[in-house]
Amino acid sequence: MRKLMTLVLALLMIAGAAMGLAGCKDESKIVRVYNWGDYIDPDVTKDFEKETGYTVRYEMYETNEDLYTKLANSNASYDVIFPSDYMIERMVAEDMLAKIDMSHIENLKYIDKEFLSLGYDPNNEYSVPYMWGTLGILYNTKMVDGEIDSWSALWDEKYAGSIIMMYSQRDAIGAALKSLGYSLNSMDDQELQQAKDLLIEQSPLVLGYFMDETKDKMIAGEAALALVYAGDAVYCIDYNEDLTYIIPKEGSNIFYDAMCVPKNCKNMEGAEAFINFMCRPDIAARNADYIGYSSPSTAAREQMEDGNNPYAYPDLSKYKLEIFSTMGEKNKLYDVIWTEVLAKVGE
Amino acid sequence: MKKQKSALLALPMAIWLLVFVLIPIGVIVYYGVTVTGPDGNLVFSLSNFARFADETYLKVFLRSIKIALYATVICLVLGYPVAYICARGTERFRTIVMLLLMLPMWMNFLLRTYAWLSILENSGLVNRILGQFGIERIQFLYSEGSVIFGTVYNFLPFMILPIQNVLLKMDDSLLEAAYDLGATPVQRFLRIVVPFSVPGVISGITMTFVPSVTTFVVSQLMGGGKVPLVGDIIERQFRVVSDWHFGSAVSVIVMIVIISMMVLMNKVDKSDVDERGVIL
Lengths: 347, 280
Fold this sequence. Notes:
The complex is a heterodimer of chains A (347) and B (280). Chain A is of the alpha/beta class and 347 residues long.
């Protein structure tokens, strides 16, 4: 028994030492990247490794909230993360992000000025824009009569059982608020109450509340209309020509996903190198072509196959678009509303 | 000396239970009975539990229990005959049936559930075949029915295995004695097989009911988000809302309700058949 224990302990120690060694051997040569799933051209990271000699440790998350939970509650350390606008605002407020020395990001000059120093990072200290996009309606022209230009289509009884909503409280409630003419960031109990009633009214018409499954279902013609991000719409339209995407006239959400460095990063130099590489026009172009979201770099768009896609690059001056801001404690109220809406469904 | 040694053997299990069961439950309870105070420190409060008393949450919880009950009853009705036939069949037959039962379980639970989505969706396999015969599309998915279906599909083996295990241990001479004394097949089944299988049924029910109440994957995939269960509420508190205190409180409530139901069931069982120990 004792022999066995000694053996086990010895093995554990060897394993620990090996891991420790592997860990410190090239600590300065490792960049830990934490990105959305399916949000980069995988060959791009390989090229980055080849050109710079860094090793990329790549991990993925599904939502901004997953990213936040992981950073706030575990010891995991990353060098580059990709939060969206409102999450950047929240992380800055909670002192979770490190300032980036923008003079080290040479390729920042290729990022269009209109995407810098936005509300969530007014002095452009914490974030470098990666992609942006809008929220709107993807619909199948063969299954819908005429053209659609308003949120009200998602409430049209003609399309009962053929509407897909997003399984995301912020976006679903946001669409309802917008269709009522309110702000996406409404904190007004009365307005939120109305949005809730509207979503409950809509629920019998909804096929389902999905996130990633929406793309497959729209391509397959499972539903006529869906609430989607523009990037996903571009992807679907590529596969099914009957689909088209609109930003409703009442206004909608515009979002920015940017590269940031968490406070507890271990390799600032590597992080800057990675961010700089991602801003290089040819690299940014490859990423945008691969994932279908909109690049904030005109220089990149010029090199893209699909750099003038009308769905990805609408004339922004024509629409009333609003950025999400953080909700703080109102988050809980959003969840109560969302739970009530879903609980009412299928009763 | 001997006693000490056997106690030592139990040590790994004891450590495991402590680290992965008792401490986590302790942490959950702690989170459940605290809230972040105005100064950022955790203060004792039962407000998380009070919040759950809201009509909406209770409705979702009741629905979770209802769906889990349906799924468990269906599992029992479908699983009992299979377990019985297997236990009474030849070794070879049993091996084949068990293999067929276990084979899908070697595949990931999520993958199996996704597979059902593409089989049952509107443009899926079943509807395409029906379409060949001129039958109109049927909306199978995204209802309570499809969630129950998904739950039954995923948890059925956990009902069959324990029942089969108990029935295998049943002494054939009991049935022969009953036969000799003139009992009819129905009498033999009801008087001997059924009472004998109760411990298996109890653990089968436990192993299907508990995961059914708390699942959120099945309800999200098969229910299309339209059939929220208590597991979804808990999941969202941790992933979306970052309200770990409320999420923990709901978990504690679910645990208490499930444990009470199990204890109650065990009591009923004990009064029926006493000498056999029943594993909760």
